[in-house]
Amino acid sequence: MPHHHHTNPSHPPAARKLLSWRRVVAACAAVAALVLLLAAAPATEDPSRWRSYLMGPLPGGTRKETVAAAVVARSFAGPAASTSSPAEAPLSSLGEINLSARIAPAAAPSMFLVPSSSPTENFDDGSMEEPEHPEIKRNLPKESAPFLKKEPISSGLPTISPDANGEHVMDTKSVLPLTPEAPLWSTAADEELIYAKKEITNTPLTSDDPDLYAPLFRNVSIFKRSYELMERLLKVFIYHDGAKPIFHSPELKGIYASEGWFMRLMETNQNFVVRDPNRAHLFYLPYSSRQLEHNLYVPGSNSIEPLSIFVKNYIDLISAKYPYWNRTKGADHFFVACHDWGPYTTKLHDELRKNTIKALCNADLSEGIFIRGKDVSLPETFLRSPRRPLRDIGGRPAAQRTILAFFAGQMHGRVRPVLLKYWGDKDADMRIYSRLPHRITRKRNYVQHMKSSKYCICPMGYEVNSPRIVEAIYYECVPVIIADNFVLPFDAALNWSAFSVVVPESDVPKLKEILLAIPESRYITLQSNVKRVQKHFLWHPNPVKYDIFHMILHSVWFSREAAHVVGFGL
């Protein structure tokens, strides 16, 4: 007698399917509950602490903490999602794997699926300030190991500096303070870097180039040859792991526009980006320091440790999933961060902090994180209109600039209060304000002041960087930079003395005297050079040769050449 499956006649086929689906849902709920129980258990080892953090806070946390945990869970699926070793992953699919697609954690609240608007305060006078948290610097996460203290060594790659006569000469002295280890194995990209280094070192003098004005550069010949090699050789691999809003979510407006515009243009680039990581000279980590702060910082906590943990876990994830980080211990990887906290979020991961090329707006030598010669000083660009990034570019001719010096802004940091103390509303030639009074803005707003001034004062705020430097260049006003220990943007390539004035913080009481001592002919040259250098700081929806996108990428490329050569002991 044939065997028959017994069915309950009271349940039609559709109902049976529904019951089966409910059993699946119930099973999934049970697994989720088990994971949450594990997450709530006390952590004794790093992996457990990682899983606990990624799954979110315990009940009773603040709304911001809950939201932050949801964003973390959405951005990562955790290392356990991958069952095969990095080397076993099929090469053809490495560029297409999205880790968040393997395990679908609970979705973050809908407000975090799209980057939220910036809390930057746009004053009526047109200036731009960012509410910062100065107390953070007293509560930074402790380093996982003390900084290595080594004397600088020579990389063999020349740097360029002006001699006493203003001519530009090669300097083959130290570039990098740390010696990176040799890669675990060599690739064709390594051979290309060796070739590029030799080509740059032996570059002949360049004759007049209509696209490059030699006085703006430390050595225009080396810059031109290095840029040509970048255009011909450079390949960049971008990790696809990570979800919005922290990853792949560029913010194109406000004072953090530099990191957002670079991310957008890098991820849509077809000339440099490759899908095969074995061809890459550089690996881009596409996370936003601005979105880290906006989504993970808990107001009132005075701690950025959740941000640092998040970044550490991300690096641990890609180093466990792929072999490329471990090949060089991160020396061929780079990230771009314009938020002031960008440097500090690296402090929990030694290799990220010491080896990776960090393109930072907060390029402060005094804090031991930014490494001159390896890291890149990123220009801080404030864009009011992402659709029209070149809006308002330009200014009055030199002869029509009737104001000697101008500054307006909040009293952030150590320099601005001193500036206001000595020059605030005390001298008709020195238009220094904490905020432009309404009686003045009725006649001339913030931008118009910059367009009408000979010198635009660019003091540091809470950190050394300031968007006013690039604003001054946009409005063809000679920037006067007051920020000790600040490595100026594109420092390896540009000769800032040709188009700016750098004043030590201690000389603020003598500021007018310093500016008046500059001969008129020298000022005319400075202002003319500001107009010439402007094109190297402009964002274009479709990048053009020598613009700011290419200048940032070239700075990272040039840094990698130097670091790579040291790694091979050449």
TrEMBL record:
It comes from the Eukaryota. Keywords: Glycosyltransferase, Golgi apparatus, Signal-anchor, Transferase, Transmembrane. It is a single-pass type II membrane protein. It is found in: Golgi apparatus membrane. The keyword Transferase applies. GO terms for cellular component: Golgi membrane. Residues 115-135 are annotated as: Disordered. InterPro entries: Exostosin (IPR004263), Exostosin_GT47 (IPR040911). GO terms for molecular function: glycosyltransferase activity. Residues 231-515 form the Exostosin GT47 domain. Belongs to the glycosyltransferase 47 family. This is Exostosin GT47 domain-containing protein.
